[in-house]
Amino acid sequence: MFPLPGPSLFPTDECVIHQAAPTTPGYVRISVGGVYTSAHRYAYEQAHGPIPEGYEVDHLCRVRSCVNPRHLEAVTKSENMRRMWATREKQDDSWRCPVHPERPPSPAAGHPGRFRCHGCSADRQRERRKRLEGLNRSAQDRL
User: How is 17-69 classified by DSSP, letter by letter?
Assistant: First the structure.
């Protein structure tokens, strides 16, 4: 645990990277009173007070392991997603699907920080259904 009495502790506008090992999506988890929480959420709450209901903490710097309260802002999920996609669109398009480049990827369920293409997911689902139909027919033929 680290003390965060307020933004004055961080007089710099540079990122303050927490030294704990980040999780797979790049966020840092810390133990506060025996309960694990995200370091950036803890930093925000220590500097600005409780996170409003229905809001999440956005990294204005886009660096997930940064805990500088000056870089953290409570926003709605839709605003956080809008900012994330706006940042990604400014970067190169290498994250777009080569098969369906016209379709932006969406967050993969159960895999934080990972994205999937809806077109490719639909293609895989169609192939899976065809395989299952073939298995069902062969099972019925054996009866």
Answer: B--SPB-TTS-BEEEETTEEEEHHHHHHHHHH-SPPTTEEEEETT--TTB--G
The set of residues, in sequence order, having a beta carbon less than 8 Å from that of 117 and lying 6+ positions away, is 97, 99, 100, 103, 105
Residue-range domains of the chain with CATH:
1-91 (3.90.75), 94-143 (no CATH)
pLDDT tens digits, 99-117: 777 766 666 655 555 666 7
pLDDT for the residue 6: 44
Q: pTM score, two decimals?
A: 0.57
The Cα-based distances of 104 to 25, 39, 41, 82, 90 in angstroms read 19, 30, 28, 13, 14
